[in-house]
Amino acid sequence: LRKSWGPELSYECVRAMIAGCVLVLDPAYESQFGQAALYADARRVGKVIKRLSRRPKMLARQRELGYAWCEQNLDPADFVGAISALKS
């Protein structure tokens, strides 16, 4: 996985996206997940979840963005490259 500046990448979040969950994260994670997640501070999380539950198309679209993020960032070739670099 490509790491950018900011909080550590959460593998629990990645596993959740792979399983089709929509992430609602602290805004500090936006540099990691971009459009693949929704962002809210602790006071607004409930509102975001209610909005998603009332808008099935929005939920489906966000799920698709999560799948797309996984496809782009979990490429097996990237993993092989990272492991190969360790041999050098």
How does this model look, in words?
- The chain has 5 helices and 2 strands; from the N terminus they run αβαβααα.
- The chain is 59% helix and 7% strand.
- The protein starts with 10 loop residues before the first helix and ends with a helix.
- It has a two-stranded parallel ribbon with strand order 1-2.
- Strand 1, helix 2 and strand 2 form a beta-alpha-beta unit.
Order of helices and strands: HEHEHHH
Report the C-alpha radius of gyration, rounded: 15 Å
User: Strands of the biggest beta sheet: in what spatial order?
Assistant: 1-2
Q: Report the count of strand segments.
A: 2
Rough shape?
Answer: elongated
- Low-confidence segments, given as residue ranges, are 1-5
Mean pLDDT level: 86
Summarize the SSE layout with pairings.
Layout: H1 11-18, E1 23-25, H2 30-33, E2 37-39, H3 45-54, H4 56-73, H5 76-87
Parallel strand pairs: 1-2
What attributes characterize this protein structure?
mainly alpha; elongated; two-stranded parallel sheet; disordered N terminus; 5 helices; 88 residues; 59% helix
Summarize the structure.
The chain is mainly α and about 90 residues long. The protein has helices at about 10-20, 30-35, 45-55, 55-75, 75-85; strands spanning about 25, 35-40.
